[in-house]
Amino acid sequence: MRKALFAACATMLLTTGANAGGLGIRGHDHTGITVPDMDQAVAFFTDIVGCQKAMSFGPFADDKGTFMTDLLGVDAKAVIENITQIRCGSGSNIELFKYSAPDQRTLNQKNSDIGAFHLAFYVDDIKAAKAFLDSKGIATRINLSVDQGPAAGQSILYFQSPWGLQLEAITYPNGMAYEKEGGPLLWNPRDPAK
User: Fold this and answer.
1) C-alpha distances in angstroms, 86 versus 9, 45, 52, 161?
2) pLDDT tens, position by position, 72-114
3) pTM for the complete prediction?
4) N or C: which terminus of the chain has fewer CB atoms within 10 Å of its end residue's CB?
5) Parallel, antiparallel, or unpaired: how do β-strands 140-145 and 119-122 relate?
6) CA dist., res. 124 & res. 119, Å (int)
7) Can you give the residue range of the structural domain that contains 100?
8) Which pLDDT tens digit goes with each residue over 110-164?
9) Using an 8 Å Cβ cutoff, are 178 and 150 in contact?
10) CATH of the domain at 155
11) Domains in the chain, number
């Protein structure tokens, strides 16, 4: 009886978002990225990264009002020409946006810039990933295998999309050192329950 009650409570906590902070989050659904050319971006994420296109929709605009500002915090005359949802393995999704806006800028961010970000994809073989990216003419950095500290056990490789988006390939097939200390485990494809 006690075991069944514990299982029911654990299920309730997982399904109601308890212990997930004030928002009651259940997980990371997607990362949105504005791209300069939707066809190029979809081709990059499907042909190079290995994701799958799920759906596309749009356009969205409001010629007479402030809907775009009220909803998204962008210029009132901004137009979302297209939104495309991409599915990448067993991780969260990517939502690509093709905007046009009177005040649109092109950001050439470095990973060290405040507010900068990158997307990381788990791979099984970093050396094979680098060889593949190099064969496709994709800009890559050096491969780093971490052998000390809490992240020991991982190998990483940074690379860039044709329009400059920062990305990373990462692997840790035997886990990372911090996992032996207890506490919350990071998502990983080695065990979908984690």
Assistant:
1) 34, 8, 6, 15
2) 999 999 999 999 999 999 889 999 999 999 999 998 889 899 9
3) 0.83
4) N
5) unpaired
6) 17
7) 28-106
8) 989 999 999 999 999 999 999 999 999 999 999 999 999 999 999 999 999 999 9
9) yes
10) 3.30.720.110
11) 2
